[in-house]
């Protein structure tokens, strides 16, 4: 999968509008409030990656997190996020950034967030590791990095992955998929890519970048989400790692 395809998808007007509506209609998940509140202080300088139209940053700002630098590689997403922020009088610092090549100085943030499984929308495992390393670089020591992923080994997905494995064996897999665990499906806005990792894969990659695992738990085990959140996104795993 070409990363330009990912950027083109998230630059479409329809996709940007969906993410803009989520800023107010969905807001912070209950599980996000719990996890972020546990590991981040309101005075921390936080870096958000893959912010979309600002769902997380906007609502964290309202809770008192006033020092957030919120980034996305889609110029359209950032433009809309800025407009929403200005409408509310919020001083969120929105910037266009590529998670695999951050412009920030080393050790300049007290924490980082990559919400809504965004880390796994970076194609190719090697590039995801580059992003992890970049996040490690810009974090101060003892700082936390929180993100979410799907779980390839979840029992409810077993039949799907059994079927996918057969496709990889007989050569009928989707031609744009680079690695087993990749998913490419037709959404209402076109072809959408995401990687669904195993827990072992996440732990191996994060460890290789120097992070230490602090916390991992399914979203449903953290909080009971309202209907609007469950319609917006399905089950995932929350991960929190520490730069040691």
TrEMBL record:
Keywords: Methyltransferase, Transferase. The keyword Protein transport does not apply. Gene3D superfamilies: Vaccinia Virus protein VP39. Residues 47-141 form the Methyltransferase domain. GO terms for molecular function: methyltransferase activity. GO terms for biological process: methylation. This is Class I SAM-dependent methyltransferase. It comes from Intestinicryptomonas porci. The lineage of its organism: Bacteria, Pseudomonadati, Verrucomicrobiota, Opitutia, Opitutales.
């Amino acid at each position: 999968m070409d990363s330009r395809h990912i950027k083109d998808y998230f630059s479409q007007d329809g996709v940007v509008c969906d993410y803009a509506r989520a800023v107010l209609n969905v807001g912070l998940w209950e599980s996000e409030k719990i996890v972020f509140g546990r590991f981040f202080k309101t005075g921390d300088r936080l870096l958000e990656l893959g912010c979309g139209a600002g769902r997380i940053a906007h609502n964290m700002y309202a809770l008192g997190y006033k020092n957030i630098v919120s980034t996305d590689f889609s110029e359209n997403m950032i433009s809309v996020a800025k407009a929403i922020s200005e409408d509310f009088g919020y001083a969120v610092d929105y910037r266009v950034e590529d998670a695999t090549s951050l412009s920030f100085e080393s050790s300049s943030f007290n924490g980082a967030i990559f919400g809504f499984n965004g880390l796994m929308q970076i194609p190719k495992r090697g590039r995801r590791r580059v992003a992890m390393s970049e996040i490690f670089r810009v974090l101060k020591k003892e700082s936390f990095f929180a993100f979410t992923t799907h779980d390839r080994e979840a029992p409810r997905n077993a039949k799907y992955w059994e079927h996918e494995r057969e496709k990889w064996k007989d050569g009928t897999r989707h031609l744009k998929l680079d690695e087993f665990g990749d998913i490419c499906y037709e959404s209402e806005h076109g072809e959408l890519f995401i990687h669904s990792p195993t827990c072992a894969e996440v732990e191996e990659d994060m460890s290789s970048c120097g992070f230490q695992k602090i916390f991992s738990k399914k979203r449903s085990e953290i909080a009971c989400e309202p209907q609007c959140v469950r319609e917006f996104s399905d089950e995932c795993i929350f991960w929190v790692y520490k730069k040691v």
